[in-house]
Amino acid sequence: MRRRRKYVLYPEYFDSKRTRSQGRRVPIGAAVPEPTLKKILTAAKYLELDPEIQSDKAYPRSWWEKNGRILVEKKWSKQKTILEVAKIARRLKKKEPVTAPKQTGSGKKPVRKKPIPKKSLSKSEKLKREASKRRQAKGGKKK
């Protein structure tokens, strides 16, 4: 019997090693190298999508590889759901903290706190900062 209240998410949708024609559904910048069901499951739980795992299923384009799939509730459009899951899964790959939804005792919906991402500096920006620190240490002018 077909389920109409859930979206199906395959790990292949998030794999950075796949091309769009091979089944990747997110931009390469949002894709994850070697996505696992565990990462996708964690991201779906974080987004409160009520995930259900089916590990014995295969992606139809690669039917011989049984990587599994996850069923999630329809909260947004399928593409937006995939992109939101990809963002969280990408953070898990980078080992950034993904805070769990905070439970309140009043029976209200949990309040979700998202961590503030650190701004990463390019190599040239780092060198400029180091040079200005050296000048300041010597007593020179700051540009």
Topology:
Elements: E1 6-9, H1 37-46, E2 52-54, E3 69-73, H2 78-93, H3 123-138
Antiparallel strand pairs: 1-3, 2-3
Proportion of helical residues: 25-40%
What CATH first level of one domain would be assigned? Alpha Beta
Radius of gyration: 21 Å
Largest sheet: 3 strands, antiparallel
Question: Numbering strands along the chain, what is their spatial order in the largest sheet?
Answer: 1-3-2
What separation lies between the terminal Cα atoms? 69 Å
Let me know the CATH homologous superfamily of one domain: Signal recognition particle, SRP19-like subunit
Oligomer: single chain
The assigned CATH architecture of one domain is 2-Layer Sandwich
Q: What fold name stands as the CATH topology of one domain?
A: Phenylalanyl-tRNA Synthetase, Chain B, domain 1
Sum up the overall morphology in one term.
Answer: elongated
The chain-level structural class is alpha+beta
Helical element count? 3
- Mean of pLDDT: 78
Instruction: Give a count of the beta strands, DSSP E runs of length 2 or more.
Output: 3
| Strand composition percent | 5-15%
Low-confidence stretches: none
Please supply descriptive tags for the structure shown above:
single chain, 143 residues, alpha+beta, Phenylalanyl-tRNA Synthetase, Chain B, domain 1, 3-stranded antiparallel sheet, 8% strand
Task: Provide an overview of this structure.
22% of the residues are buried. This protein is of the alpha+beta class and 143 residues long. It has a domain at 6-93: Phenylalanyl-tRNA Synthetase, Chain B, domain 1, CATH 3.30.56.30. It is 29% helix and 8% strand. A three-stranded antiparallel beta sheet has the order 1-3-2, with helices on one face. It has helices at 37-46, 78-93, 123-138; strands at 6-9, 52-54, 69-73.
